Amino acid sequence: MIEAEGISEQEFMIQLDSLKGKEISVIYRETLAELKRLKPERQIRCIAWLCVLANSDGFMDRTEWQFIYKIYHKELQLPLDEIMEVQKELAKATRENFLVTVLNSPSSSRVSNF
User: What is the pTM of this model?
Assistant: First the structure.
């Protein structure tokens, strides 16, 4: 995600650290306000990233789905089909980037071919 969005790892960590100690309700309220300021295309991309992250363990559980649904449908009124299309693109790019990273790592020469 950091590479795909052109964010430096340092900036990402700074933003992540800034959330520590904040109440979840404050984070939600501030994030929703910022999302509402974005153009719909950027909103869709943000929600698509939430979906990719929620699915990263192989399964989006009920609470994750309800949370994402609440944001994209009830708060932002975004079209699900567009979110799913962007989600597929992001997931594919993320997988491809991961494979390139793994294959180019020094330890990849120790991986056996099947």
Answer: 0.79
